[in-house]
Amino acid sequence: SSPANSSWDAAYERELQTFQDIGDTGEIWFGEESMVRIIRWLEKHKVPLDSSVLDIGTGNGVLLVELAKSGYVNLTGIDYSPSAIQLSEKVREKEGMSNIKLKVEDFLAPSAELSGFDICIDKGTFDAISLDPSDAAGKRKLYVGSLGRVLKPEGFFLITSCNWTKEELLNEFREGFEILEELPTPKFCFGGRIGNSVTALVFQRK
C-alpha cells in the first residue's frame, strides 16, 4: 500500500470510529452541492431508476444513500480501502438501504465481475490517483482503461474534480469518451481573476 493509500485508510479508520461512537457520517467529501448536481443531472436526463450505477471510490457511501433515497435501485460502490467499505456498510445499515452493493476493489485492476454499468460516478478518486507520487501518469492511463472496461458503450461517466480543468480532463479521457456537457460549479475569485474550484463534466463512452 503506497503512503497515499495508508493515509486514506487512516482517515477512514477515524471516520469509522467516529461513526461508531456518535452515528455521524463525518465529512461529506466535496460538500452537498456536488451530490445534488449529480442527482439533478440524472433526473433531468430521465436516467431510468433501474440503471446500474457504479460509484468509483465510494468513501463513506453517502452519495449512494442519496441516490437510493432518490429512487435508484441498482447501486454499487467500490473502494480500495476496506475501512471505507466498512464505513459505508455501517451508513447503509443505519439508513436501511438494501439495494446498495459494496465491494473492496482496486479500480486500477478491477475484477471481471465489475462490468456492464450504465453510469459511473467519480467524486475525487481520479484526483487522488493523479496525485499519487509513484507513476501518476501511468495510473491515470490505467484508470481510463478500467473505465472503458466497466462502463457500457454509450454509458455515462460523471466526474467531479478539484485538481483538473475542463481542458485537462478532455485530454485525459479523449481515448474512447466524448464530452456531453459541463455542469455548473461554484466559482471563486482570486486576486481579481475568476477561477473554478471544482470542475464537473459528463462524458459518454463511444
List the topology elements.
Blueprint: H1 3-22, H2 32-44, E1 53-56, H3 62-69, E2 75-79, H4 82-95, E3 100-104, E4 117-123, H5 125-130, H6 136-150, E5 151-161, H7 166-172, E6 177-183, E7 187-190, E8 193-196, E9 199-205
Parallel strand pairs: 1-2, 1-4, 2-3, 4-5
Antiparallel strand pairs: 5-9, 6-9, 7-8
Strand content: 25-35%
Major β-sheet profile: 7 strands, mixed
Q: Which of globular, elongated, flat, extended, rod-shaped describes the shape?
A: globular
- Series of secondary-structure elements, N-terminal to C-terminal: HHEHEHEEHHEHEEEE
What's the name of the CATH homologous superfamily of the domain at 29-161? Vaccinia Virus protein VP39
Q: Could you state the oligomeric state of the chains shown?
A: single chain
**In whole angstroms, how far apart are the ends?**
33 Å
Question: Could you say which structural class the secondary elements and strand pairing correspond to?
Answer: alpha/beta
SS elements, strand count: 9
Radius of gyration, in angstroms, nearest whole number: 16 Å
- Mean pLDDT over the residues: 87
Q: Would you tell me which CATH topology of the domain at 29-161 applies? A: Rossmann fold
CATH architecture designation of the domain at 29-161: 3-Layer(aba) Sandwich
Poorly predicted parts: 23-30
Fraction of residues in helix: 40-55%
Report strand order across the widest sheet. 3-2-1-4-5-9-6
Count helical runs: 7
What is the highest CATH level, the class of the domain at 29-161?
Answer: Alpha Beta
